[in-house]
Amino acid sequence: MKQGGFTLVELIIVILILGILAVSAAPQFFNYSTNAEHSAIQSLSSALKSGVELTHYQASIRQLETENMSCLGGKFDTADGNCSENGILLRFGYPAASVENLNKVVNLNDWEHLELSTGNAITFARTSEKLSTECRVIYRYDDIGVQAPTIETRTNQC
């Protein structure tokens, strides 16, 4: 009488091989959330850089890059220093550092933000807990108007 099946030794060898494969592949699965966070930060940084440059090009065409404060796509109200009609507030041709203003350049609805009290920098992160960590994008504006805004990415603690 012939029986079919696997011996105990064969089953143990297969289980050992599967265990070794699982242990070697597991770190890659745990790394996916970090990679996704890095990609989201880089994506926002790239979108901000592109949006700021396009806005500056439009301001240059309209010769607004030399004005301390102006408005692109709306009317500038000198009384309160804001733009009406959904315009973008500009400082020397670049979007001024405010969430409302930058949201007209790039969609920021999925991002948490923190505006610094100096009024020239905004920090963006995926969650409010990450605003104070090294997993964020910082939009920093030069108040003097000598340099273009800088957009920093920090991904050390994602």
Explain this structure.
By secondary structure, this protein is an alpha+beta fold. It has a domain at 35-64 and 97-155. Helix content is 36%, strand content 22%. The chain is built from three helices and nine strands, in the order ααβββββαββββ. It has helices at residues 8-30, 32-61, 99-102, and strands spanning 70-72, 76-77, 82-83, 88-91, 94-95, 112-115, 121-125, 135-140, 150-155. A four-stranded antiparallel sheet has the order 6-7-8-9, covered by helices on one side. A three-stranded antiparallel sheet has the order 1-4-5, with helices on one face. Strand 4 and strand 5 form a beta hairpin. The longest helix has 30 residues, at 32-61. The model has no long low-confidence stretch (mean pLDDT 86).
State the main characteristics:
single chain, 158 residues, alpha+beta, 3-stranded antiparallel β-sheet, rod-shaped
Question: How would you sum up this structure in a few lines?
Answer:
The chain is built from 3 helices and 9 strands; from the N terminus they run ααβββββαββββ.
State the secondary-structure class: alpha+beta
Count of helical regions: 3
Mean of pLDDT: 86
Strand order of the largest sheet: 6-7-8-9
Bin the helical content.
25-40%
- Listing every helix as H and every strand as E from the N terminus to the C terminus, the arrangement reads HHEEEEEHEEEE
